[in-house]
């Protein structure tokens, strides 16, 4: 059902956990299945220097969140906010059709984390 890359990211998810004193936090849940994802980001010089995630989700949600952190790490805020669920699926190679919606969690939670970061920056000004 899943390709090797998906299984690898599911069994050995990268960048799990939370970040103490993050610069942005994003939470996104899928009401259709009840799964949800929390993304923490640390930003230095307008780039995502660290990113971690906590999840309650299916294998595909874990794999897509894991690869999302690899895609986002080191990217500028502007580049990272453009990461789409299609980018996540492409990075994994493929996902079974019924699991395609799972990649949405990562893209949306990251956008929320970036929004939170930008809101905090506005408040500091
Ligand atoms: S089934 Fe809910 S995120 Fe995968």
Question: What does the model show?
Answer:
- By secondary structure, the chain is α+β, with helices and mostly antiparallel strands.
- The chain is built from five helices and three strands; from the N terminus they run H-E-E-E-H-H-H-H.
- It has helices at residues 4-11, 59-72, 77-80, 85-92, 103-124, and strands spanning 24-30, 35-44, 47-56.
- The protein has a three-stranded antiparallel β-sheet.
- A hairpin with a 4-residue loop joins strand 1 (24-30) and strand 2.
- Helix 2 (59-72) packs across helix 4 and helix 4 crosses helix 5.
- The longest helix has 22 residues, at 103-124.
- The site of FE2/S2 (inorganic) cluster (FES) has 10 residues, from helix 2.
**What's the end-to-end separation, in Å?**
50 Å
Structural class: alpha+beta
Which term fits the overall shape? globular
Largest pleated sheet: 3 strands, antiparallel
Major sheet: arrangement of strands = 1-2-3
Strand content: 15-25%
**Mean pLDDT metric:** 95
Proportion in helices = 40-55%
Radius of gyration, in angstroms, nearest whole number: 14 Å
- Total count of strands: 3
Q: List low-pLDDT spans.
A: none
- What is the H-and-E element order? HEEEHHHH
Q: What is the number of helical segments per DSSP (H or I, 4+ residues)?
A: 5
Bound molecules: FE2/S2 (inorganic) cluster
């Amino acid at each position: 059902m899943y390709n090797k890359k998906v299984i690898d990211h599911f069994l050995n998810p990268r960048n799990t956990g939370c970040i103490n004193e993050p610069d942005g936090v994003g939470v996104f849940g899928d009401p259709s299945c009840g799964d949800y994802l929390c993304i923490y980001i640390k930003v230095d010089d307008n780039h995502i220097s660290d990113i971690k995630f906590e999840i309650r989700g299916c294998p595909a949600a874990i794999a897509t969140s894991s690869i999302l952190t690899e895609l986002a790490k080191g990217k500028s805020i502007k580049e990272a906010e453009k990461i789409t669920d299609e980018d996540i699926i492409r990075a994994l190679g493929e996902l079974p059709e019924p699991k395609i919606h799972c990649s949405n969690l990562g893209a949306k939670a990251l956008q929320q984390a970036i929004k939170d970061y930008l809101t905090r920056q506005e408040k500091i000004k």
